[in-house]
Write a structure and sequence with these properties.
Number of helices: 11
Low-confidence stretches: none
Structural class: alpha/beta
Shape: globular
Radius of gyration: 20 Å
Largest sheet: 6 strands, mixed
Number of domains: 2
Length: 330
């Protein structure tokens, strides 16, 4: 019997490069890898059409589906995308929002209520700054292209209204003064192009995000690796073998980041930045697995439930099959 043939769709991250490039080979698996620059296409094609067996997916969308008792997907605790999101709030430079507390009573746009970045950002605004969701007028629209729709069904809390605007973009509405802020994983086009009238709400975001991590222990997870349930039902060992392969590829990437005298990325002092990350986050500064990420996952799932992205509270253990919750040790 030959190896199980699987196709994986994932972003072109350095920490998965040795897996997608065939340097690390998962035992018993003949893996075809599709690499994408933008994760939104991966999510859309996998969640709507199941075009491949293994896929990077939005943690927000995946958690929402699990809370709805969806049975066609499961996941392994591999987190290719992570990012703090105090930097994800954009405002007009001449607008009324100068601090997080100023968002109360304002009009705020989101690309999707279930977008993982927004869940974390709203959780920070609620729990660190006392913002009440019902005190904001929420609008949902595409960031730079009109017509984006919510990818999964959500049920916002009582008193929280979200108005869909299919004919306009969030960026357009911010520049026109029809929105006071945008919360988005990606910067709006105006910001990326250096528009003088748009800025981040938190401009010293690295300092603020580091302080948030020290206070809470939350290192936000954006994306997780999901599998079609039929694949795991047919081959239960696939989950553990994939997890080990992702772990080895990541280990090699961290070693490159720390040890390179000539950086693999065109970033001056890259190895010094990696060493700084190790000081803050520990020896494995991009951890996989449940226990190493329990504080982050518990916080995120609580945020998602209180914001109506998850229909019910979800425990971290529900996200993953039992065979990857603990690691075998001799």
């Amino acid at each position: 019997m030959g190896d199980v043939r699987l196709t994986l769709a994932v972003g072109d991250f350095d920490h998965v490069r040795d897996l997608t490039g065939g340097v690390v080979v998962p035992d018993g698996i003949d893996l075809t890898c599709l690499r994408f620059e933008r994760p939104e296409e991966i999510f859309f094609r996998f969640l709507n059409f199941g075009e491949w067996e293994v896929s990077e997916v939005s943690l927000g969308a995946y958690a929402a589906l699990i809370s709805q008792d969806a049975r066609d997907l499961t996941a392994i605790p591999v987190f290719p995308g992570r990012s703090f999101r105090q930097s994800a709030v954009y405002v007009r430079r001449d607008g009324p929002v100068g601090a997080p507390s100023d968002l109360a009573g304002r009009r705020v746009g989101v690309p999707a209520w279930s977008q993982t970045a927004g869940i974390y950002a709203r959780g920070w605004l609620m729990h660190q700054h006392g913002l009440r969701l019902e005190d904001v007028a929420w609008f949902q629209a595409g960031l730079d292209q009109p017509g984006r729709a919510e990818p999964v069904e959500v049920d916002p809390p009582e008193g929280v209204g979200i108005t869909a605007v299919p004919s306009r973009t969030l960026d357009e509405m911010l520049l026109a003064g029809d929105l006071d802020a945008i919360i988005s994983a990606r910067p709006p086009m105006s910001f990326e192009r250096g528009h003088p009238g748009v800025r981040r709400l938190v401009e010293n975001f690295v300092e603020v995000e580091e302080a948030y991590y020290r206070e809470t222990g939350i290192f936000p997870i954006m994306h997780v690796i999901a599998l079609r349930r039929d694949v795991l039902d047919a081959n239960p060992w696939v989950a553990t073998n994939l997890l080990r392969a992702f772990e080895e590829a990541k280990r090699r990437s961290l070693a490159r980041a720390l040890e390179a005298t000539v950086p693999g990325f065109p970033i001056p002092w890259a190895s010094a930045y990696a060493a700084r990350a190790r000081e803050l986050f520990g020896e494995d500064f991009w951890p996989y697995g449940l226990e190493a990420n329990r504080p982050t996952l518990e916080a995120f799932l609580a945020f998602a439930a209180e914001q109506g992205v998850c229909r019910r509270p979800v425990a971290p253990e529900e996200l993953f099959p039992p065979q990857v919750l603990t690691e075998f040790k001799v």
